[in-house]
């Protein structure tokens, strides 16, 4: 009977090609609009590190006081003084501080021009905390941090560019006239959004190309390649040491805490540290610290671009309008067949038979609309750069899951939209139709 109902539906759709085309186009455009914007929203709102998002935390310390804070919140980064105090205390099992760096790579081949490579100055725990995968070698160790060694981890892309993809561990690379020994090559790794560096507005930036020890970068006076926020409490200063000892925030901190007890203990440590700074005369306000995990941090920083939420809401509204239009078209189409329904009912067909026939016909419309929606979705992906920033637009991908979701939404939405027209058609009275016709 299912095959028979499909044949009846196909024959009915062929009777009025224009009406069928209108329904297919309505479903196709509505589904495509919603799927294109959903692809963007999915890319920018996912959990970038789901296996550890509840154990990685951002500790923040208020070094400005209520007079200069925004909405009572402390700055979104740390000063060098506070960052080093947290590292020395070592109250977390793993901890790291980081800031972005931009260094000029000097190729060994004199025929090739130097080029800029961006990355981070960080601590050895960075790679373990964030589950960074490696193609060759590994990260450096705490001994290299303490010794301020000139070691480096490079990305797979940079390794391909410089060494043709060969194992480069142990070789040297020159950056800004400084020589570094390569200890590891990361595999493809680019979490989106880049949760660990929201302060520098690098949520959707290109993948990092290199990592060097934080201690070495500071010892060599390698400046931050990101934001340096001195607020209203002072200026950067005239020298490197005055900047380090000042109140400018520029370092992103991260700690790993495994359970609620460790989180509570770390909060107490932060408050105790802030009280010590107040007793020492540096602060003159009560402790105002924060400790947020990855998801809380992303929510607080509004990591999901507002235009993606607005676009998704509008596109879903457009899909609803298209479905309402489809309801009207199906209702007109089904009610025009009232005489046919009356004869079928008089010959013994039940209301369930009418439901099965017309819902199968609606499913065929949804299938055709889904195919059209897929084509329009693929076309819409090409134009995302007109609506979103390029680094966000290129994150949206038409993968297998989106294809399946598009077809599922198209078919299920059309079938749901067909319930009311089908119910009205099933209420046709056979006797009245036979008398009137």
TrEMBL record:
Localization terms from the record: Cell membrane
Topology with respect to the bilayer: Multi-pass membrane protein
MacB-like periplasmic core domain ranges (all copies): 20-221
Keywords annotated in UniProt: Cell membrane, Membrane, Transmembrane, Transmembrane helix
Chain ranges passing through the membrane: 21-44, 310-332, 365-388, 400-420
Residues in ABC3 transporter permease C-terminal domain copies: 314-430
Entry GO MF terms: transmembrane transporter activity
GO cellular component: plasma membrane
Signal peptide limits: none
Listed name of the protein: Peptide ABC transporter permease
């Amino acid at each position: 009977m299912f095959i028979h109902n499909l044949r009846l539906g196909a024959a009915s759709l062929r009777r009025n090609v224009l009406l069928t085309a209108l329904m297919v186009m309505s479903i196709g455009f509505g589904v495509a609009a919603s799927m294109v914007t959903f692809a963007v929203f999915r890319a920018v709102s996912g959990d970038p590190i789901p296996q550890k998002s509840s154990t990685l935390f951002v500790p923040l310390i208020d070094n400005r006081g209520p007079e200069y804070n925004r909405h009572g919140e402390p700055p979104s980064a740390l000063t060098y003084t506070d960052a080093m105090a947290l590292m020395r205390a070592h109250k977390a099992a793993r901890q790291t501080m980081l800031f972005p760096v931009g260094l000029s790579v000097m190729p060994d081949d004199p025929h090739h021009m130097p080029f800029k490579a961006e990355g981070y100055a960080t601590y050895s725990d960075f790679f373990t905390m964030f589950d960074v995968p490696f193609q060759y070698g590994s990260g450096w160790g705490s001994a290299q941090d303490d010794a301020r060694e000139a070691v480096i981890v490079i990305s797979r892309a940079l390794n391909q560019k410089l060494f043709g993809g060969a194992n480069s561990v142990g070789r040297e690379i020159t950056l800004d006239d400084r020589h570094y020994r390569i200890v590891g090559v990361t595999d493809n790794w680019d979490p989106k959004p880049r949760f660990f560096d929201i302060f520098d507005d690098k949520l959707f930036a290109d993948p990092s190309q290199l990592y060097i020890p934080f201690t070495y970068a500071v010892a060599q006076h390698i400046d931050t390649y990101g934001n340096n926020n001195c607020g209203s409490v002072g200026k950067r200063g005239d020298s490197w040491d005055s900047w380090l000892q000042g109140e400018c925030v520029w370092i992103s901190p991260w700690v790993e805490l495994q359970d609620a007890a460790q989180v509570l203990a770390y909060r107490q440590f932060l408050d105790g540290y802030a009280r010590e700074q107040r007793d020492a005369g540096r602060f003159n306000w009560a402790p105002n610290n924060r400790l947020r995990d990855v998801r809380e941090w992303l929510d607080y920083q509004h990591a999901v671009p507002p235009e993606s939420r607005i676009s998704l809401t509008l596109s879903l509204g457009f899909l609803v309008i298209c479905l309402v239009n489809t309801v009207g078209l199906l209702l007109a189409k089904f009610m025009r067949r009232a005489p046919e329904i009356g004869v079928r009912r008089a010959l013994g067909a039940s209301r369930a038979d009418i439901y099965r026939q017309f819902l199968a016909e609606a499913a065929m419309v949804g299938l055709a609309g889904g195919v059209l929606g897929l084509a329009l979705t693929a076309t819409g992906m090409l134009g995302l750069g007109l609506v979103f920033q390029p680094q966000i637009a290129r994150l949206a991908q038409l993968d297998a899951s989106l294809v399946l979701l598009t077809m599922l939404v198209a078919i299920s939405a059309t079938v749901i939209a067909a319930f009311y027209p089908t119910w009205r058609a099933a209420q046709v009275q056979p006797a009245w139709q036979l008398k009137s016709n």
